[in-house]
Amino acid sequence: LYLFLSFLPLFFISIKEDLYQNTSISKRIFAMVFSCIIFFNLNKTSFPLIDIPLFYSLFSNNLFLFIFFTFSSLVLINGFNLIDGMNGILGFTAISQLISLCYISYFITDYEIFNYSILFILSIIIFLLFNFPLGKIFIGDTGAYFYGFVISILTIEFFGRYENILSWNAILLLFYPSFEMLFSFIRKIFFEKKKPFEADDLHFHSIIFKSGVSKKINPTVMNNLVLFILSPFWLSPLLVIFFYNNLQLIIFSLILLTLLYICSYLFFRLNLKSE
User: Fold this and answer.
1) Which residues contact 113 (CB under 8 A, 6 or more apart)?
2) ∠ CA 66-72-78 to the nearest 5 degrees?
3) How confident is the model at residue 45 (pLDDT cuts 50, 70, 90)?
4) Residues 38, 150: Cα–Cα separation, whole Å
């Protein structure tokens, strides 16, 4: 109930954007922040412990944690919207994340998080039956924001309950859409001198698609091939199932995924420029 009530501000704003495509980014950001504030206050959320020795006192401050996890939710919500550019990417990313949450929650007998995860997995599967590979329906901003919001809240809620489970797992779990968002910001601000929220078609999936089409691959075929090319990233949440107790392997995975993302992005971007 709290989850759906708190999503309402973002729901109305995103519905307006889907219908009329004239909603300013500031209004959408405000709605995201408002939805997070409503949930954290209604549910009295216990925030996860972030074990970084140099910043321990900072991460012990409740106000700072409130701001930090609201910001983290915004990154994931917007990241979900960014990766929703080709058939199947958002759906399969969400399924991988929810499967990992399912596994860990079942393993430690948290059946509340387990049941919620199963519920949202089933709804995504139903969506994917019509979205991939033929693209009969699309999830839109409303769907992207909803799943970004739900998964961020479930992750914060779960890791806030169990201090004995490494919070680094959450970073690995949410890596792909979150890194897509952060990378996009860095790319636009420091390398392309654009406004960070300025829309463009230079996201990872977009340049892979354009690179394939430039080589005369059928656009419909290429749309679906993008999903398989990006599989290391949308499958990466499943690593949590195997590494959730091993900090070294989690950090190694994050470093490897970061390097793979950057190198792959540069490869396709340079390949596109050479055409």
Assistant:
1) 101, 105, 154, 157, 158
2) 135
3) confident
4) 13
